[in-house]
From TrEMBL:
This is DUF523 domain-containing protein. Pfam families: 2-thiour_desulf. It comes from Rhizobium fredii.
Amino acid sequence: MTAKILVSACLMGHAVRYDGAAKPLCHPAIERWRAEGRLVTLCPEMSAGMPVPRPPAEIEAGRTGASVVSGAGRVLEKTGGDVTEAFRHGAENALALALATNCRFALLIDGSPSCGSSFVYDGSFNGERVRGEGVTAALLRRNGIEVFSDREIDVLVERLAGEDEAAP
């Protein structure tokens, strides 16, 4: 069976980011995967009912997406609102969709408090990055789904090539 890939909706050109923008990822593999029926698109925040646009949010300083998943961290808006439960709900929705559609891989936008897989912002709203992952990326990884950032698409291409060659 062809491996499915859960993809951040903003990478597919949907204007779902906090600022109402998209971040379309242009790569030959995207069109090939789309034609093969591999892509499953979701914005975790939108699936949790968050509006577009919405205030910027970051995981609180010193915490990670895994902290939020375990209840030991929060996601806060720049305006001071606590949106932790919405981010947790969005992550749970992403996991449920990935499991229901047999996604073994995820291609997520880096930097997001949901989808970041190698870095997120430090909670100061000053544009400072820290190594870490968002809430959705953490929950997906915890459940055995391989997560790749938009900057790692070539690594995912190679990973899938190996997977496809090994398939019976």
